[in-house]
Design a protein that fits this description.
471 residues; mainly alpha; Peroxidase, domain 1; 3 domains; two-stranded antiparallel sheet; metal ion binding; oxidoreductase; hydrogen peroxide; metal-binding
Length: 471
């Protein structure tokens, strides 16, 4: 822990790190122990003799970093992490030796040859010592890191370690499943898997979604749009709900998004950014339409279709007749198919498109906007037109007027951009993340805005004028 051994504090960081990967304590312990059942650490030398990291190495290093040009630097003399030694008696085979050593011996702090802190056993039996990396006639002390000692000293990890030690088959199964999860989670839904080795079992972390067997004709789609628009729901309510349903999508691992309709389930239905009261109002109306249909249509499809119909209406109100493409086929996931804790990292704690910030973050709002847009897979042009369009549609969080540069709220128009670049206005800061648009000739306040609104017209590096760059 910052160079100072502290297994209990390390346990806290390990737990947090693996939680971000949606791993529970049992999976974390299995991955730690399983990963350390084979292999060794390398720190048998002077770390100061190593060359730069790969990106800082000389041309002749050809991408290999931390080379040792002063001594042999390989085999038993390798220095990488700085710790030196194997974790188990037989570091080239899968067994339960990790827990045997960890739990049956007392451990003390020592320094590796490279000067790193590591834990070594007290009075270890010779037969429990791993052999030297090159000379099998020599036996060496095994080692443990602070993370390993956390598996022994943290009360919860200790219980799991003892369970694994007493049941090696269970440990192997948990490790195999956790490893599969670790290496496949970024593939997204199981439907994206290819090849003959795809497991038949549906796993909760894969965010399973029931398949649907219906199709919709153009006339059926038009009829559904008419039904939705005939309700008491506003354009803003329909678009906000469709957007909130879709904005959880992450291109990094293909999680989230509108498919599954999980916005109607915990935890999403209770997220502050989804405005639970407004969300439930929309869901109730759409469920009413759904229950009256002769053909069973998923709520996930109805949510997206509602947003589509609302955008078309907003465009029509602005004098433009358009028909947006709509592809049905989304399923409705159940609560049993939803990992509540696993979805917590997808909560939108910032969303520039709806001018929403849950907290006062260290990063600037415009930086968070770029991060969100990249995660959703949006291009710069798509990010710009979506934000400007949504401002005029009036879908800001909580009905905020920041950035709503129009007198025709609810009508899809380019008013946001027209007023943003109008030289008849000047901008005056009123707080850390708030501004007023003031008429130059009268001094009257015309609109209010936030940083994510003004950034599109800024010439301040590194933003430069996004409008000029894009258009």
């Amino acid at each position: 822990m910052d160079g100072n051994p502290d297994p209990l504090r390390t346990a806290k960081d390990v737990r947090e790190t693996f939680k971000r990967m949606a791993m529970n304590d049992e999976e974390t312990c299995a991955l730690t122990a399983g990963g350390h059942t084979v292999g060794k650490c390398h720190g048998n030398g002077n770390a100061e003799d190593l060359s730069d990291a790969p990106e800082g190495g000389e041309l002749e290093d050809q991408g290999f970093g931390w080379n040792n040009h002063k001594s042999r630097g390989i085999g038993a003399n390798t220095v990488t992490s700085g710790l030196e030694g194997a974790w188990t008696t037989n570091p080239t085979q899968w067994d339960n030796g990790y827990f045997h050593l960890l739990l049956n011996y007392d451990w003390e702090l020592k320094k590796s040859p490279a000067g790193a802190w590591q834990w070594e056993p007290i009075n270890i039996k010779e037969e429990d010592m791993p052999v030297d990396a090159e000379d099998p006639s020599i036996r060496r002390n095994p080692i443990m890191t602070d993370a390993d000692m956390a598996m022994k000293m943290d009360p919860e990890y200790r219980k799991i370690s003892e369970k694994f030690y007493n049941n090696p088959e269970y440990f192997a199964d948990v490790f195999a499943r956790a490893w599969f999860k670790l290496t496949h989670r970024d593939l997204g839904p199981k439907s994206r898997y290819l090849g003959p080795d795809v497991p038949s079992e549906d796993l909760l972390w894969q965010d399973p979604i029931p398949t649907v067997d219906y199709t919709l004709s153009d006339s059926e789609i038009s009829e559904l749009k008419a039904k939705i628009l005939a309700t008491n729901l506003t354009v803003a309510e329909l678009i906000a709900t469709a957007w909130d349903s879709a904005r959880t999508f992450r291109g990094s691992d293909n999680r989230g998004g509108a498919n599954g309709g999980r916005i109607r389930l915990a935890p999403q239905k209770d997220w502050e950014g989804n405005e639970p009261a407004r969300l439930q109002k929309v869901l109730n109306v759409l469920e009413g339409i759904q229950s009256g249909l002769a053909k069973k249509i998923s709520l996930a499809d109805l949510i997206v279709l509602g947003g589509t119909a609302a955008v078309e209406k907003a465009a029509k109100d602005g004098g433009v007749q358009i028909t947006l493409p709509f592809t049905p086929g989304r399923g409705d996931a159940t609560a049993e198919q939803t990992d509540i804790e696993g979805f917590e990292p997808l909560e939108p704690v910032h969303d520039a498109f709806r001018n929403y910030l849950k907290h006062d973050f260290k990063s600037k709002p415009e930086e968070l906007m770029l991060d969100k847009a990249q995660l959703m897979g949006l291009t710069a042009a798509e990010m710009t037109v979506l934000l400007g369009g949504m401002r005029t549609l009036g879908v800001n969080y909580g009905g905020s007027k920041h950035g709503v540069f129009t007198d025709r709220v609810g009508t899809l128009s380019n008013d946001f951009f027209v007023h943003l670049v109008d030289m008849g206005y000047q901008w005056k800061p009123t707080g850390k993340n708030s501004y007023e648009i003031v008429e130059r000739n009268t001094g009257n306040v015309r609109f209010t805005a936030t940083r994510v609104d003004l950034v599109f017209g800024s010439s301040k590096p590194p933003e430069h004028c996004l409008l000029q760059r894009l258009f």
